[in-house]
Design goal:
Structural class: mainly beta
Helix content: 10-25%
Shape: flat
Largest sheet: 18 strands, mixed
Number of strands: 48
Strand content: over 45%
CATH topology of the largest domain: Jelly Rolls
CATH architecture of the largest domain: Sandwich
Number of domains: 5
Number of helices: 6
Length: 676
């Protein structure tokens, strides 16, 4: 039969009883820096975030002071350092066999590889060489002028270079490669794969003729000594104690506790940060359950060391230290633990699957499947057209076909005499299967034999037909008004990424990201203001919440002055007696000022009250609740009687609970000459 040409993706698996190796996904264990992007095979860019996935053909690009650490299915680590562009060309895993190829376009990567088992491959490629690794740690760099630099701290690396060299480098060795020449250089200590060493070599060969000259050798030897000395001293000071693992384990995870005499700045396992500023660290790590073999866990402590002082002790010039920094963070080895992961059931299943793959084309039945994956983004489903060729069963019997994405499974039956079928399978968040990377189609024949074909699912979470559930958000006050913070909580965003936008008075003041059902805290501005939080998922589905929130400044240094005086105002005078036709009073003005109010914000004043000692009622009263308070300065007319001591008390109440007080006293006696 023939199928419509509109079907863009064709996958034909002939006589397969178990799936071929499928594209696996690496997981981002750590990401830092402002510029860190994932670029997929179609050129679409997204931010590289902790917890995100890296798939085959994805590129990672980092800017200044950015870093992205990726864990491969077997537990190996690839760290893309700053100012780098790296492509994960191959990333396959099936039946216990992993194939990984990392192409370094520019910059450098650090790696810590688990020992490769059987036919598994872990390779690095540059413009001038290809390197294969079997359990080691080190670094690979491509300089600005295109020179390749390979360095190892431990293990071995097989390199095939354009210069014609084919061989291995060992622990403590590095190789510089360009189109016509190769050079191997060995350091006394095992620091050839150190990031600082690789960086120095890349700079030196770019500034020279592409070779490690004598001056560069001396500099590297000095740097090697400093690094080794600092490592030894720093590790001794931390004195971290590691537990022992059993020689063989049957589960694909470990859980251990590490204790140190003092807390390192950070604690890493195979290059991934697991704790900061802790002296006792609980560590859990896992890997793909199908990948058996040796598992190694390198524990690294990051601590701040006086590297310059260490250089002086060794009579080494300070200029070998990057940027001449006195105190710099240094990675210190805090030990390694190893075990062997073996599970008999998984080993047997892996071997059986491989055997089935080898013999699949001999049973005389073909199963072809055609999938229209364009429909996933357009309609939220995939149309599958299958053809079964060569099956000979009784017409009264049925063939069962099972469609499975892991979290969602459906099935249909067709008469054994049928050769073709069509099925529409939904792929979307509401089906709980939009995280699936493949759809497996199993054909179960009446004689209990089976054919399995797999379709790659390019489910795009920016498609509205796939991403159908609208996220929601709520706003909650945080602690108290004095905290001047609020909390937002995002729900209905499971397995999705969302942009959270904070608006105040209608203006955008902050943006942040939410991973899944997330929550976060944002700061409030002083006063009572309307806030709106808008959450937008990858398909532009939007939810929002609004709330009027109040933030009161502390105003710890605010005070009220009277007639220019911070202290109590007191004025005593002798004055002439008033004429008989005039009341026996003097008219005065109280000049009140509220000082040191943050942001000169009078809206944080609840009330201003002036009373006269000995009299009931207020001489003067203003309330913000009535909209009376619109300034920080007030002139208040008062009357003072001759011959009496008159005191006015001023009380300013702030919304945050503080009360500011002062007073003014007047005493006017008639002068003696007037009295007679």
């Amino acid at each position: 039969m023939s199928f419509s040409r509109k079907f863009k993706v064709l996958t034909i698996l002939l006589a397969v009883l178990a799936s071929y190796p499928m594209a696996a996904a690496g997981k981002i264990r750590f990401a830092i820096g402002d510029e860190r992007k994932i670029i997929d095979a179609k050129g679409k860019e997204s931010e590289a975030k902790t917890g995100g996935k890296v798939r085959e053909k994805d590129k990672i690009r980092t800017g200044i002071e950015a870093q992205v650490i990726v864990a491969l299915p077997d537990g190996s680590i690839v760290s893309v350092e700053e100012n780098s562009l790296v492509e994960f060309t191959n990333l396959n895993s099936a039946n216990g066999v992993q194939t990984a190829m990392t192409d370094i376009k520019q910059g450098k990567v650090r790696f810590d590889a688990q020992k490769q088992k059987g036919n598994s491959k872990f390779q690095f490629k540059t413009g001038t060489a290809t390197a294969a690794i079997r359990g080691t740690d080190g670094a690979v760099g491509v300089s600005k002028k295109g020179f390749s630099v390979f360095g190892l701290n431990s293990g071995s690396m097989d390199i095939e270079a354009q210069c014609g060299a084919t061989g291995s480098i060992q622990s403590g060795e590095m190789m510089v490669v360009h189109a016509t020449a190769c050079q191997i250089f060995k350091l006394a200590n095992q620091n050839a794969g150190s990031e600082n060493v690789i960086e120095q070599v890349m700079n030196a060969i770019d500034n020279g003729n592409g070779e490690i000259d004598e001056n560069t050798k001396k500099l590297l030897e000095s740097l090697d000594k400093v690094i080794e000395s600092v490592k030894a001293q720093g590790a001794k000071a931390l004195n971290c104690k590691l537990p022992e693992l059993a020689d063989t384990i049957s589960t694909n995870s470990i859980s251990v506790k590490v204790t140190c005499d003092k807390a390192p700045k950070a604690f890493l396992v195979n290059g991934t940060t697991v704790a900061q500023n802790q002296a006792a660290i609980d560590i859990s790590s896992d890997w793909d359950p199908n990948i058996l073999g040796e598992k190694k866990f390198d524990f690294t402590c990051v601590d701040t060391i006086d590297v310059v002082s260490e250089a002086k002790k060794l009579n080494i010039p300070e200029n070998i230290i990057p940027e001449n920094q006195k105190f710099v963070p240094v990675n210190l080895s805090c030990g390694t633990i190893q075990t062997y992961y073996y599970n008999a059931a998984i080993d047997s299943a892996n071997k059986a699957n491989l055997e089935k793959q080898d013999s699949a084309v001999t049973d005389g039945i073909e199963f072809n499947i055609v999938a229209n994956t364009d429909e996933i983004c357009n309609n939220g489903f995939i149309t599958l057209n299958g053809a079964i060729i060569g099956a000979k069963f009784d017409a009264s019997q049925n063939i069962k076909i099972v469609f499975n994405t892991g979290n969602k499974s459906r099935q249909m039956s067709i008469p054994a005499s049928e050769n073709n079928f069509t099925y529409i399978f939904p792929i979307k968040d509401s089906e709980k299967n939009w995280e699936a990377t493949k759809l497996e189609v199993s054909v179960l024949f009446p004689d209990d034999s089976k054919k399995v074909a797999s379709i790659a699912l390019p489910a795009n979470k920016s498609c509205k037909a796939v991403n159908t559930i609208k996220p929601s958000v709520s706003i909650q006050t945080f602690n108290s008004n004095m905290q001047c913070q609020a909390k937002f909580k995002v729900i209905n965003n499971e397995d999705d990424e969302a942009l959270v936008s904070i608006f105040r008075d209608g203006d955008l003041v902050r943006e942040m990201t939410a991973s899944g059902n997330d929550e976060g805290i944002f700061n409030l501005s002083s006063g009572t203001r309307p806030y709106k939080v808008v959450v937008t998922d990858q398909a532009r589905n939007e939810g929002s919440a609004t709330k009027t929130l109040t933030c009161y400044d502390k105003n710890a240094s605010a005070y009220v002055s009277v007639n220019g005086s911070r202290k109590a105002f007191d004025e005593s005078k002798r004055v002439p007696k008033a004429p008989p036709q005039i009341d026996n009073v003097l008219h005065k003005t109280l000049k009140i000022k509220i000082n040191n109010m943050e942001h000169r914000d009078y809206t944080q004043i609840e009330s201003i009250t002036v009373t006269q000692e000995g009299k009931l009622g207020n001489v003067f009263f203003l309330s913000n609740a009535n909209g009376d308070i619109d300034a920080l300065d007030y002139s208040i007319p008062v009357d003072v009687e001759y011959g009496k001591r008159t005191t006015f008390k001023i009380k300013v109440k702030l919304y945050n609970g503080r009360i500011l007080e002062n007073s003014a006293t007047y005493h006017y006696n008639v002068s003696t000459s007037e009295a007679h």
